Amino acid sequence: MATIRVVLRKKKNKAGRFPIAIRITKDRKSSYLNTGQYIDEKFWDEKNRNVRKSHPNSKMLNNFISTKVAEANDKVLKSEMNPEYQTVSDIKTKIIATKGLDFFAVAEMHLQNLKNRNKHHQYDTEIGRIKKFKEFLDKDILPFNKLNSTVLKKFETFLLHKKKLAPRTVVNYLILIRTIFNLAISESIADRGLYPFGKGKMTIKIPEAQKIGFSTDEIQKLENAESLTEAQQKAVHVWLVSFYFAGIRVGDVLKLKWSDFNDGRLLYRMNKNSKLVSLKIPDKAIEIFNHYRKNSNYNGLVFPQLKGVNLNDTEEVSKRTQSITRNLNRRLKIAGKSLGIQKNISMHIARHSFGNISGDKIPIQMLQKLYRHSSVTTTIRYQANFIHKDADDALDSVVNF
């Protein structure tokens, strides 16, 4: 007889929370059904197998758990009545198969996982992409056996030609669909044989992106800028600090605190992948920091843009950062135009500019460290946009005769 038990699994997510799961055990073998709910370990009552009352949503979560356990018990009883022997894996598959989970139901699981990991910006972006997929299909339910390469290729054409989206943006839509399908397979919701991606099916090819960075002359125009408005000057300062630290992302720049600086170094944890970074503070950055230190009244923050925001509320920080970034980019464009800079300027161009100026001067392993890339392959692909010397020399060797 198979048994059902609700457990808190010990593999925490990036937000430090643990998944609540339903464990199915038969013949000393166990399989797990993920409920999609995550909590801090301190809120789990191991003895009673439920969420402690100290959790703000304990009643709702415990009702949810009870419902899921009851559903699983019902399916186990029906499975056990089958005269054919069934393994724990068979039972799990039958439980999931009767849930009626389609692509969009699993998409909701994926979105909830993003929220649980505090990936609010990614959540906002991907919920919009899922809505656009629904718009294309003109339906709210999509069984996995109906999601094939033909549908995906039509969707790709729809995005490229009707919605006029850039090829790289279209790839992001397809990657999201692939991620959701992979989640369904990992949770035994969809059969691997239905997988619509790969050779002979829908292939995802990431187009080469054109990355254009500023030259030293253009950066010096920003450094020596005069007659800018106060708002424009603050935007330029944020841009320059990002550039001086090898293009750290705007969200990390805005959250810099004076306590992050010690012994002439910046020590901070990246928001994107939680990596701990230690970098020397360049003299040019010190000049900017000294300007803000004299007027520091931003609750410990170096820059004022996130003043008054609850930094512990990751969703609020994410939404405010998106809004602030739009304002910074708008002011940077005005400043760039007044300084005679022809290239388009945005906060992200700071990272490209560091790559453009570094070119092939810095060993790729050191660039990987400065960029905080997990893989040197990522660094090689990124930096290839800015290394032109060998190709230029080869060209000159042929045509200059």
From TrEMBL:
The keyword DNA-binding applies. Gene3D superfamilies: 1.10.150.130, Intergrase catalytic core. The lineage of its organism: Bacteria, Pseudomonadati, Bacteroidota, Flavobacteriia, Flavobacteriales. It comes from Rasiella rasia. This is Tyrosine-type recombinase/integrase. GO terms for molecular function: DNA binding. Keywords: DNA recombination, DNA-binding. PROSITE patterns: TYR_RECOMBINASE. Pfam families: Arm-DNA-bind_5, Phage_int_SAM_5, Phage_integrase.
